[in-house]
UniProtKB/TrEMBL annotation:
This is Response regulator receiver protein. Pfam families: HTH_8, Response_reg. The modification 4-aspartylphosphate is found at D81. The keyword Metal-binding does not apply. Keywords: Phosphoprotein, Two-component regulatory system. Residues 32-146 form the Response regulatory domain. It comes from the Bacteria. One of its GO terms (biological process) is phosphorelay signal transduction system. The keyword Cytoplasm does not apply. One of its GO terms (molecular function) is sequence-specific DNA binding.
Length: 204
């Protein structure tokens, strides 16, 4: 757990711009927040930033430990990285929603695709945010309960490279993130597929 008054609290501008203040009354109830990310530095900085905004925060770095913590804490909020080493955070989204359908879940990813965003929402995530994000983006996402009909629609079609990226991720999702099966379905060498998946998505 992290305290607002922890002496090691630092502002790391690479990840966040910390603007929140500690609650005046430390005896007040703080909503529970589970953060799951295999990047321990990122997870630690995010935990401190969210604690500063009034959350009772717990960090874990893999799905097994995250499930144990979720079963123990029954968190009101959760932030889950999509890619946890060789595991998919989407399975954790589903598990947490089974434990408590009321948990508000945000999925974070540095490899955003339409397919994974759709699956995250279908499995019960409240929002899906592409990294880099800051704590204020996360707070805004937690507070939103409805969609925005005024969201602009891009007048430009997706590039060929972006269409390939989206197609690969859709097939990957259909095959439960199994690289070998996906490579076979795409008639692509496994190493070629891994190389494509390791690249950042082509900008829209």
């Amino acid at each position: 757990m992290y305290s607002c008054h922890h002496p090691d609290f630092v502002q790391n501008k690479q990840y966040f711009t910390v603007k929140g203040e500690c609650p005046v009354n430390d005896s007040m109830d703080h909503p529970s927040l589970l953060i799951v990310d295999d990047d321990e530095v990122f997870c630690d900085v995010l935990a401190r930033a969210m604690t500063k905004r009034g959350f009772d925060t717990t960090c874990t770095h893999n799905i097994k430990t995250a499930i144990e913590q979720a079963e123990s804490l029954m968190p009101e909020y959760a932030i889950i990285d999509l890619k946890l080493s060789n595991e998919s955070g989407l399975s954790l989204v589903e598990k947490i929603r089974e434990l408590d359908p009321g948990t508000r879940i945000i999925v974070l990813t540095g490899y955003a695709s339409i397919a994974t965003a759709v699956e995250a929402i279908k499995l019960g995530a409240t929002h899906y945010l592409a990294k880099p994000v800051d704590a204020n983006d996360i707070m805004t996402a937690f507070e939103r309960t409805t969609g925005n009909v005024d969201t602009p629609i891009s007048p430009h079609p997706l590039s060929v490279e972006r269409l390939e990226w989206e197609y690969i991720h859709r097939i990957l999702m259909e095959n439960d993130n199994n690289i070998s099966v996906t490579a076979k379905a795409l008639n692509m060498h496994r190493r070629t597929l891994q190389r494509k998946l390791s690249k950042k998505p082509v900008q829209l």
